[in-house]
Specification:
The chain contains six helices and no strands. By secondary structure, the protein is mainly alpha-helical.
C-alpha cells in the first residue's frame, strides 16, 4: 500500500524546471502568433498574374488549413501548459485557488482610516479585482498624461508670451535714454 501512496502524489518540479517550462510556453506563443500570421497571409489577396488560377487558390487553401491547424494545436498546448503552471502556483500557496478564494477569503474593507464609514464589500472575485471593470480602468489611464500635457502647454504659452513682450519696444518710449 505504501507504493500506491507514492504513485498518486505527482513529482514536484524544481524552480529551474518551472522556468524552463515557462520559456517553452513563451516560445510556443511566438510560434502561435507566427502561425496566425501565416493564416492571415494565406487569405490576403496578393496581386499576381495567376491570381485566378485554380492551383493558386488550392495552394492558398492548403496553406491556410495548415496554418490554422498548427495555430489550434499550439493554442491548446499553451492553454494546457499555462493551466499546469497556475495549478502548481495554487498548490504551492503562492496564489489562492479559485474555489478557496471565493469561499474563505475575508471581505475586503473599503473604509478610509479615520472615517466613520465602514462599508463591507463582498469577497474578491475575478482574481482579486472584485466587481471592478478592468476595461473601464484601462480606458481612463491617460488622464494624468493629458493633464500634464495641458500644464506644460500653459507654461510654454506663458514663457513665449513673456519673451515676446521682452522683445517688443518699450511701448512707445524712447529706447535711447542715456
Amino acid at each position: 500500500m505504501a507504493s500506491t501512496n507514492t504513485q498518486t502524489k505527482p513529482e514536484a518540479f524544481t524552480r529551474e524546471e518551472r522556468i524552463k517550462q515557462l520559456i517553452d510556453i513563451d516560445k510556443n506563443v511566438v510560434k502561435l502568433l507566427r502561425s496566425a500570421g501565416l493564416a492571415v497571409k494565406a487569405l490576403a489577396n496578393q496581386s499576381s498574374e495567376s491570381s485566378s488560377d485554380v492551383s493558386d487558390i488550392n495552394s492558398k487553401k492548403e496553406a491556410f488549413t495548415s496554418a490554422t491547424a498548427q495555430y489550434f494545436s499550439l493554442l491548446s498546448s499553451v492553454d494546457v501548459n499555462l493551466r499546469r503552471q497556475i495549478y502548481a502556483l495554487e498548490e504551492a500557496n503562492i496564489i489562492p485557488a479559485d474555489a478557496a478564494q471565493k469561499e474563505s477569503a475575508p471581505a475586503p474593507s473599503l473604509s478610509v482610516p479615520g472615517s466613520q464609514q465602514t462599508k463591507e464589500k463582498p469577497a474578491a472575485e475575478s482574481g482579486g479585482l472584485g466587481s471592478l471593470d478592468v476595461g473601464w480602468l484601462n480606458s481612463r489611464n491617460d488622464k494624468v498624461d493629458k493633464e500634464m500635457e495641458a500644464e506644460l502647454w500653459a507654461k510654454m504659452h506663458s514663457l513665449l508670451k513673456g519673451l515676446d513682450e521682452q522683445n517688443k519696444p518699450n511701448n512707445g518710449q524712447d529706447m535711447s535714454m542715456s
